[in-house]
């Protein structure tokens, strides 16, 4: 008979495989959409002038085959996916790993005196075998740090730009195919194909785009299950038709997979052929989204799905289309058969049109979910306004939805469809965004391989080999600047300026608060001089700095000399990591003399952690304070408790908790809320009278309610600031007023929220 441990192990392995199969199914709808519609986009944007002979046609297929084999398969699936940050991927995840490697970042979480509290980063670095600043070559190299941050933001802006361009391109292209099928339009020149636009194409594309973005609020899981069957049918359809065309029309296309045709194509390079690489690049558009969307799926699911299903289906499709086009070349009708629809058997044309339309809608999903993931990371690391983030899954922490970003993407997408109306131009812009993001990922990965994996030779080979390929494609896309690629430059500049401005303003605000902070001793003396009144309840003061008292609170008590019976200064510390374990999230310490009942809490969270429930947050802090009070000796010799004396608060409901608790329900603001009610156990010789008295005072204060006191700064540029600084700070002020949420970590109810206005000159 099998032992219970063996049975349990088998059950666990079975559950893991079941989870992988479910995520593989979902990934087809949320990760591989853009890659799957590559044949549709490539065939729509390719110029007929670049494939005048069978040899040139075979050269195109050879380029597509080897590009797909080397970039998505070899580079991303087998190398880049290994560099995830605890289940999160993308450019910013790589940057956060490098920040943790050598503390090379310029973000507010590691400024000034805060480093002494960064136990989580230090331990993570040692556990991963990561070197220090000097080993990484960044010691006293501030310009390199700025360059790394700029590259991270640039890579993020490319993914966000794709979140606009790809839906516009894929949906508009499919709408053109639908209209062609219904009207029977035939193009005599490639220019007519590129500029084709009937009265129904734009309205149809706009309606589809609106419907696509309206679906996003249902969450990645539901959208993935809805879209996955469409991609499965699409890949099976184009794969089977591609195999059929290859065997029936021209089996010789198999020889085009030889690098020989790749060499022939490059040997006969001219400007026209070089520009054609921009269209070929679209066959791998979506590779970066595989990495960025790890948080929505899993590495194992993404690898298995791509290797065994997506990759072979796409290769068969490209081979079948090449076989059909080789026949068209012999019949001299290449001008109007480059669209994928033309290579389908005639009795399947209408089925293909509707299926391609659905697949094009799904193809946009990968870029949209990747945009949500990247923006969520940027928010947590202080490089994007704190807009509300909705976590749509309790099991997969990386599945997020951002309503405001979803709306902005939709508006920009409609803008490009209505004004541009040119598939070729949209394709050129998408290609430039794709290759720029890949180049940045390649640079960061080479650093990771050299420093974290301790393989400098492999890193050099990696960046040289893949860098040459990507540089070639980048040059091809740059040649198309006037043919639509300028749209990406304009869009990426807008997004990049937004990120840089928010980062600049955040750092400056942090520095201003840190420079103007006062000590706890000063606050105690000021309190005695003002004769502060203590009112019942708990006051939670939300601050940015980790030490000292922020100037806005001094401004508050100077004008209104009254504070709560218990005062807790709470700092939200974003860590350069995907997730912080619950047992390491809360640091609790006492401020000043015991009778003042003032405490500090530092709440540490990763960029992938979900928003805390407000009552859960309060319960965790109070439980941590109970633990702190119970550990202190009855008499403290120092007049002030040093700020460095802090403990890591244990999880709520710990069996060793000093107090007992019960869960109660109440209705607040029309919503049912669960709350923990604390109570002291019967008198015990293990608990001294002063400790019992203070704990009872904390419990009584909790029963009177909690108020959150936050700063509302009114900002202006200081005298003598340069125009660049004024420009960046002006954008930050605008975003801070119009987009910034009260807190991305807590859902603070309005009834318990107090803002303290204060003027700042930065």
From TrEMBL:
The chain crosses the membrane at residues 21-43, 63-81, 146-172, 225-244, 304-324, 351-379, 400-420, 432-450, 457-479, 485-504. The keyword Ion transport applies. It is found in: Membrane. It comes from the Eukaryota. Residues 536-762 form the K+ potassium transporter C-terminal domain. Residues 24-524 form the K+ potassium transporter integral membrane domain. Its main location: membrane. Keywords: Ion transport, Membrane, Potassium, Potassium transport, Transmembrane, Transmembrane helix, Transport. It is a multi-pass membrane protein. Belongs to the HAK/KUP transporter (TC 2.A.72.3) family. Potassium transporter. PANTHER family: OSMOTIC STRESS POTASSIUM TRANSPORTER (PTHR30540), POTASSIUM TRANSPORTER (PTHR30540:SF97). This is Potassium transporter. It comes from Platanthera guangdongensis. The lineage of its organism: Eukaryota, Viridiplantae, Streptophyta, Embryophyta, Tracheophyta. The gene is POT6.
